[in-house]
Each structure stands twice: as C-alpha cells, then as structure tokens.
Amino acid sequence: MAKSKASKTRNRIDALRAVIDKECTAPTCQESGTCRHEGEKDAARHVLGRLLEKLKEAAGDEREERAQMWAEIYERGYDANGSTYSTGAKYRAGQSMKERAAGIRADIKMARKAGQTPLVQEGTGLVSQALETYRFDPIGEAPAQIKFRVRIGPGYGSIHIGIDNIPQEWGWTAEEVADYKGKKVTRWRRTQALKDLEAELKSIGEAYNADHGSNLYTDVSRKAFYVFVESDDPETLARCAEYERKHRERRG
Ligand SMILES: [Zn+2]
Fold this sequence. Notes:
Blueprint: H1 5-8, H2 12-21, H3 27-32, H4 38-58, H5 63-73, E1 77-78, E2 84-87, H6 97-114, H7 127-130, H8 138-141, E3 147-152, E4 158-164, H9 168-171, E5 172-178, E6 184-190, H10 192-206, E7 210-214, E8 226-231, H11 234-251
Parallel strand pairs: 4-8
Antiparallel strand pairs: 1-2, 2-7, 3-4, 5-6
The structure holds zinc ion.
Residues 24, 26, 29, 35-37 line the site of zinc ion.
C-alpha cells in the first residue's frame, strides 16, 4: 500500500514543505500552462522561511550565520543624512495594494493551515522549545476562534490587519488603577501572547513594504505604505456592542 500523504507529514515544517514541493497535476493548470496554485506555494515559502528563521535563532546559531541570513532578507542602510532604506522580502516595485493585501491574506491563511500540524514531534531535540511554541509561530499557535481581517485603508496608503474574536483571558489582563480623580478604573493590558501575535502580523505586513528614504528628524516618510495591526480590548468591544444595541432599539 502506498504511503498516505498524512503519514509523511510529520510536523509543521514538513507540512509547509509538502505544499511547496507538491507538483501540480490539476488539468486546468496543465492545459493553460500557468499554475493557479503558485500563490499558495509562495505563501508557504514565506511562512516556512519565517519559521526556520525563528527556530534557528532559538537554537543559538552563530551570530554571523544569522547576520548573513538577514542580509539576504533585508537590504538595509542609513545614508549620511540619517535617512532609512529597506526592502521587505516580499516587496515588489509596481505591486498594487490589492496584490499586497492578497499576499498578506494568503500568508496568514497558510500559517493558520500549517498551524494545525504540530510544530515539533515528541522525542526530538526541539521538544523543550515546544513549550513556548507561540514564540516561533504566533499566527499558527493563536487560538482557533481568532479571526483575521486584512483591508486596505482609505487613500490606499495603508493596510490594516485586524484581530477579531480574541478569547479575553488569552489576550488581555485587567489591571485596577486609580484615575486622576482617584476613582478606580480597569485598564486592559495586552498579554505577551497577543503582543507576539501583533508583532508577527506587523512583520508579515512589513515584508511587503519598502522604505525609499524616510527620515525621522525631518519627519519625511517615503514608505510604500503603512501597516497597522488592530485589536479591540474588552471595554471597547463592550462599548461597541452597547452602541449597536441602542442603534437597533432606535430603529426598531
Ligand atoms: Zn496548479
């Protein structure tokens, strides 16, 4: 009996490699000569590259090797005036905002799909790292109920990545603080897990971005676009729900 695909997929890295290496046999692709599944492979390459980078870093690889890898990913420099230049790994000149948003969406989708496969296997040297897997794959490890939204901002100058349906105890901790009148109020703070997820999403978005010479001192921005990651704390969510309820009452 032939080995099934599932038994060959041992961990998340294998699962992503399987997507990348899979030869397309779809008749429509073979007839037309262009594979419609290249986007999926591209997303898998991006997600796998990020995952390997994090695992390598955690494994305590040589500084030099790491620097070399980053050099390949980013070409970054500062000119004599303190202007910054960078090119994200997925940035392409002339790419439309729609294409960028679609790429970010595909990367998130791929990371979620791969996230269903265990990051590491029992009995490997990486097991101890599995305890903190969200550090290596915050998108794949985020609770299943979370939903992601990617939209282009007004004027096509930004991409907004929204995180919805966050389990309260996973994403937020309540802190009782006194306001300026001494009244006790609740302040919601992001957990480390949510912060890591937001940082990862920001970094996915920035991979499609480039900076053609922004300068902090002269307040000049020459970025291709801005990336915003958004999540609402429980208080904001409650306020929105209350607003919607009143709005419905008024109409009904
Ligand atoms: Zn295809």
